[in-house]
Specification:
It is built from 13 helices and 13 strands. The protein has helices at residues 14-28, 64-77, 89-99, 121-131, 142-152, 167-174, 199-208, 227-237, 253-256, 273-280, 311-323, 326-343, 346-363; strands at residues 2-7, 32-39, 50-56, 81-85, 105-110, 136-139, 157-160, 186-190, 217-221, 243-246, 261-264, 285-288, 304-306. The strands form two sheets. It has a seven-stranded parallel beta sheet with strand order 3-2-1-4-5-6-7, with helices on both faces. A six-stranded parallel beta sheet has the order 10-9-8-11-12-13, with helices on both faces.
Length: 364
């Protein structure tokens, strides 16, 4: 098969990183794969095959120049499959298909819950149009799949295929040395510093329980619109020695493996790869059960899945993880590790994508 994978921009974000890992796997399986990023970005992403970066500016209006550029590449490459991986790739994929002269199957990879982000009737109508121009949707979790079907009335082919984890590569990267010091006994928040990830609640909670958690520190790893606000609150609370904000890392695993627990306070999620990565490192995961998280995180089986908005239960879970007997905790962590290895290995997941592509082509 000839396959194009569309990325939003070069950035160290789950959707882009996984799309490149998938592209490498498909290339190794003998397919001809072209990767194209739409918007400008500064992330250091690499692919062993051809990687075209259009460098378009992020505009809210229709980007006809970008659509036409993408159309020309598609006409030249003649793909069987074009997969749009989240965000702006849907818009560009749909309009490029309208302009393109060759026929191909356009797949949208839905990596998050869509309905919570749509606030206006016009926007819902616009995205309803875009989604229904695709030939199929692959959702990262059952929750995101059902959300898309119900919210947009999508009646074409859908399939749930989770994110895949390259366990051997993760273990190799986690052994690399850090060139900076980390605090002892830290909770790790790993993700965008944006409202839907809810990082401010975690900081306020840490401040309120600082005496109870006197031996703990808090590390944020990521960037986003709330970064300066968080820094101001850290100073206001007098927590400069105990709360640290690290930028997004090309290799986050040496940090992740040292955490006492990964804490995810998100209000909205699809299925974040960092949960699976923490499980591979046998790091306890405490997260609100939003989106597809309950599909992998089972309380006291593979982690601690907290009912959404139950702040007290989240706090109690942190206390439980920190004080739990080593043998009891280790059993949970071993079960989580085995669960990921069994169901989320990158080769397994890549094969599911390949088989779905072949199914679509046979139907058409």
């Amino acid at each position: 098969m000839k396959i194009i994978q569309l990325l939003t921009r070069p950035q160290l974000r789950g959707a882009e990183i996984f799309a490149l890992q998938l592209s490498e796997q498909l290339k190794e399986r003998g397919h001809e794969v072209l990767v194209i990023s739409i918007l400008s970005g500064t992330g250091d992403l690499a692919f062993s095959g051809e990687f075209i970066q259009l460098g378009r500016q992020n505009r809210t209006h229709l980007d006809w120049v970008g659509f036409w550029q993408l159309k020309k590449i598609i006409d030249s490459f003649q793909p069987n499959i074009v997969q749009a991986n989240a965000s702006d790739t849907l818009r560009h994929g749909v309009f490029a298909k309208k302009l393109a002269t060759n026929r191909f199957q356009l797949i949208y990879r839905n990596a998050n819950m869509m309905s919570p982000f749509i606030k206006s009737r016009w926007k819902k109508m616009y995205y309803h149009f875009l989604v229904n121009q695709t030939d199929a949707v692959i959702s990262v979790s059952q929750a995101t799949r059902i959300d898309l079907i119900n919210f947009y009335g999508f009646k074409k082919v859908t399939k749930t295929v989770p994110i895949g984890i390259d366990t051997l590569e993760i273990e190799r990267l986690s052994s690399q040395k850090l060139d900076f010091d980390l605090p002892q006994n830290f909770l790790l928040f790993m993700g965008g510093l944006v409202p839907e990830k809810n990082p401010e609640w975690l900081l306020t909670t840490f401040f309120e329980y600082q005496r109870v958690w006197s031996h703990l520190n808090l590390v944020y790893m990521g960037k986003g619109s709330l970064e300066n606000r968080l820094k101001s609150k850290i100073m206001k609370y007098g927590l400069e020695d105990r709360v640290h904000i690290l930028p997004s890392q090309t290799n986050p695993f040496p940090i992740l493996k040292r955490a006492k627990a990964l804490v995810l306070t998100s209000k909205i999620e699809g299925l974040p790869a960092v949960i699976l990565e923490a499980m591979i490192h046998k790091v306890p995961v405490i997260a609100f059960g939003v989106g597809g998280i309950p599909e992998v995180l089972k309380t006291e089986e593979t982690g601690w899945c907290i009912p959404p908005k139950d702040s007290q239960a989240f706090i109690e879970a942190i206390l439980e993880v920190i004080s739990m007997k080593k043998g009891t905790k280790q059993k949970i962590l071993d079960q989580a590790y085995l669960f990921v290895c069994t169901h989320f290995s990158l080769p397994q997941v890549s094969l599911q994508f390949e088989e779905f592509y072949k199914y679509l082509l046979k139907q058409n």
